Amino acid sequence: MKTIKFKARVIAIALISAFGISEVTAQSADEIAKKVYNRTTAKDGESDMTMKLVNSKGETRTRLIHQFFKDYGTVEKKTMFFKSPADVKNTAFMNWTYDDDKDDDQWLYLPALKKVKRISSSSKDNAFMGSDFTYEDMEKRNPNKDTHKLLRTVKYKNETCYVIESTPKEEGQYAKRIAWVIKDKWIPLKIEFYDEDVELLKVLTITDYKKIKDYWIIVNQEMKNVQKNHKTIITLSNIKVDIGLGDTRFTQRAMQRGL
User: What is the per-residue pLDDT across 40-84, written as a single tens digit (0 to 9) for each?
Assistant: First the structure.
């Protein structure tokens, strides 16, 4: 009996060596999700943002935005100001992400109404400014809201990636997400979003990222709605980090005042 058990162990070790199973089990799904969420980021910063909306015919609409962000420790704040075209100019969006399990707070300023509108929880599955991102997609989702499962490790775009399936603990707009996370950098290179029928709805692809100071920053990403054949491309430029931003950019009054 001991000989049989010993042989079984030898076979198991051989399989681990051959197929990299030890690599898969080196990190738990929860640990990986938390490392993505807690990836080291700048204390504050700003950048220009180009948002391109591409329809099924290949027709493109381009929006220019400037954004500010600041990490207060227990809350991260971001404000986006739309600069063009004319139909969205001076629109502003603000998002506050909390360090606990509390839902993000979001506000939208519409210059035509001259009013700041709070985005309700029931509205977070709506499209953000006509893009393929919803308001919920603009949030930094706390991993405690999901149950995570480690599916496998793969080579993707020359990176070793953990493939993580995340299923919401409470019913939401997505039945599940599957993310390809770069080992050690903790950047999701790709995320698949599945609708309530567990059909593939959207795919988020990170097409470029770079290190600025000590931080890995995503500079180009594409969200494609595969069911509508529509996509949104977001590109960051003129990125500045750790610049000592004050608090004045992260208020409703600042949204109304604009850039």
Answer: 999 999 999 999 999 999 999 999 999 999 999 999 999 999 999
In angstroms, rounded to a whole number, what is the distance separating the alpha carbons of residues 246 and 242?
Answer: 11
Euclidean distance between CA atoms 51 and 33, whole angstroms: 27
Cα separation of 255 and 92, whole Å?
A: 5
Structure tokens at 216: 């890995």
One-letter amino acid of 192: E
Structure tokens at 63: 């929006």
Determine which helix (DSSP H) or strand (DSSP E) holds 253, and give its type and residue range. Answer: helix 252-257
State the pTM of this model: 0.86
Measure the CA–CA gap between 88 and 79, rounded to whole angstroms.
15
Assigned CATH topology for domain 2-257: outer membrane lipoprotein receptor (LolB), chain A (2.50.20)
- Smallest CA-to-CA distance from 191 within 228, 141, 128 is with 141
